[in-house]
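**Polypeptide and fold**
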Amino acid sequence: MTVHTHDHDGMDHSHTGHEHPGGEHQDHAHQGHGDNVNAMAVSATLHCLTGCAIGEIAGLMIGTAIGLSNVATIGLAVALAFVFGYTLSTLPLLKAGLALGTALSVVLAADTLSILTMEIVDNAVMAVIPGAMDAGLVNAVFWVGMMIALGAAFLAAYPVNRALLRRGKGHALTHEYHHGAQTPSGARRFIPSFSTGTLVAAIAAFIIGGLVVSIAADMEDPGGHAQSATISAVG
């Protein structure tokens, strides 16, 4: 009788070089989810920033124009930032069919922490920039300070919005209404709707325009002072 033996010592049982489709799929899915959250956080932060920027610019312009104190100017700017921020978030929800009370409750829950973060940082930065709060509207310091303050506010609010989105809060509460809404009918068709990109472009153009006008005024100012001094000397 012949006995057949099988030698298994040379067999390699390792899985080196073999891919695991399931694990790879999970990694890609996790990465895709993270990218989606990051993109939504950027969009949410820009959306809040537009309302805050409009309110901040309006408040600081009014405060400096009528000679309010720094504290009063900051208070006015913060109040207007919340008004414009909430308004820009409420309009799309009203257009989507929500009642005013429901829309406001959703917006208050979604935007308050983000706007509050922006306002604290924005006004703190403006307050520490030398001359920014006391600069006139035709002054480059005002507009440069505004650019720096809004940029800092964006950087501060982005991680806040990202953390809220990961928990299903913040702008995640309004996302379904923006993307799953029915076509507006009746009077809701006339509710204005502004895209975030359009608002960002308009605000950027306004700030840059103010800066250009201020620089032009500064370039002409020395000649004006010299002319005034000459007239005074002659008189």
Remarks:
- Residues 21-66 form the longest helix (46 residues).
- The chain has one domain: 42-219.
- Residues 42-219 form one domain.
- Helices lie at 21-66, 70-95, 100-128, 140-166, 172-179, 196-234.
